[in-house]
């Protein structure tokens, strides 16, 4: 079964924006004591007015500590509003006014917020650095330390530091129990179930998902779709298919539309493993409907995203400048250092010009690749193949072979959808490519008389979901094996073999046809996929620098009259 958990089971981050202990905003007479309540009620305009008033007074009396606390509050408000660059600017000003020997707790909370900010930007290394700073300044076993530990564990998951993530999860759970914070403990158990899914330790996944569910029930909280889906997925892997399916259905009751997409696919896989093809068909139909709905929504957002792209880039650049400026000020730069900075900025400007030229080249390259995709899409969806498919369905229905027609329609619809979904991509995961080819061979097998057999074998050491190959690279060879290798054979056989190689992967496509077709026999390939096009595409892919692809076509069998053909594709991954 394919591994789909990575799409859905992201780690939950806990944004820290309140004072918690009361020290940051609760100083007697500082005017900031009401901020926590305003944040909790989302009364951001009133909070902004209060902060502005207190900051003005602090500046008037030159109260450095109150200036620092006011800027920290403004940073928290801006962070809640998603204004990340402005939030960071205020945090950096606040740090200048608060000294670690007097305000360690306040600085710890600021560093935690900066860690959350960089997590939102997916700059996880920088996020980790700030969370570690926050922990160093806050050794006390309090709620702030708990949230920092929980967030740090999530960052370790993102940076794939598995041992550190597990150690931090357990430390956070121990502290949550000590503080009797069952809500955060429940979230940590869900994240631990994510961790153990990544380790394929299904019993541990079940254990921690159930602990999370138990805690949430005790708190009167609604079910967590992610937790129930984790539990269902692990149970299915353990062979408890019916129980796992029950938990999938519970997860659907609380799931968002994006989560429903993944759950329906998991349901489809579970029902197929259970042999309930009709339920599997219903699940994949719902999956497709949700996916189409999401695709429509995403398309509508693309225009807005393109318009915001420049502004987003400017924000990130501004944040980088602020961080660099802060680092420079902390080190009290000399005049020589300022000169180095100026030279660096000039270098960045030159790099920016080079980047724009590179982007222009990529646009031109994409137009060229779009033409290739169009030609390959026409190959896979040629009218003759679709006409034969429809005739086969009509034949099965006429003979009242309901199960066979349902199975045929399932393979046909999945193949068409996979072709359409991946035709716009540069690369596709090997497991998706194998699924497409399997559906194609199954359909051709049902259509042929005499029929043929086929076998797909993947080496155990390969991880198909982590291997990406050029889109639509293998299909023309498989199609040719069907049309010319086993046609009118009577005992035809096609084999697809995927083997590991030190620097890439070896792919073999074998048939036991009546004769060998070679690179000099261009007419042997389908008329819409001549050998010239295949060779031209491989040459183009080799020039792009991501792959080195070598193709060899030879005799697959010593049997006279049935020499057959073997296509060997060696794909080396360059980067």
Kindly report the CATH topology of the largest domain.
Answer: Heat Shock Protein 90
Q: Which oligomeric form is depicted?
A: single chain
User: Rg, please?
Assistant: 30 Å
Fraction of residues in helix: 55-70%
Instruction: Decide which structural class fits the backbone.
Output: alpha+beta
pLDDT < 50 runs, ≥5 residues: 1-13, 15-28, 302-310, 377-381, 519-529
Indicate the proportion of strand residues.
5-15%
> Strand order of the main beta sheet, please?
2-4-5-7-6
Order of helices and strands: HHHHHHHHHHHHHHHHHHEHEEHEEHEE
The total of helices stands at 21
> Can you summarize the main beta sheet?
5 strands, mixed
CATH A-level architecture of the largest domain:
2-Layer Sandwich
Structure description:
The protein has 575 residues and is an alpha+beta fold. It folds into four domains: 14-178, Tetratricopeptide repeat domain (Serine Threonine Protein Phosphatase 5, Tetratricopeptide repeat), CATH 1.25.40; 181-255, Serine Threonine Protein Phosphatase 5, Tetratricopeptide repeat (Alpha Horseshoe), CATH 1.25.40; 262-332, no CATH class; 369-573, Heat Shock Protein 90. Helices cover 67% and strands 9% of the residues. It has helices at 5-8, 35-40, 44-61, 64-80, 84-97, 104-120, 124-137, 143-158, 162-179, 182-198, 202-219, 225-237, 241-254, 257-274, 277-330, 335-380, 383-398, 402-422, 430-447, 475-485, 531-543, and strands at 427-429, 452-458, 468-470, 492-501, 504-511, 547-555, 565-573. Strands 2-4-5-7-6 form a five-stranded mixed β-sheet. Strands 1-3 form a two-stranded antiparallel sheet. β4 (492-501) and β5 (504-511) form a beta hairpin. α5 packs antiparallel against α6 (104-120) and α10 runs antiparallel to α11 (202-219). The two termini are 28 Å apart. The model is unreliable at 1-13, 15-28, 302-310, 377-381 and 519-529 (pLDDT under 50). Residues 296-330 form a coiled coil. Residues 375-447 form the Signal transduction histidine kinase internal region domain. It comes from Sphingobacterium bambusae.
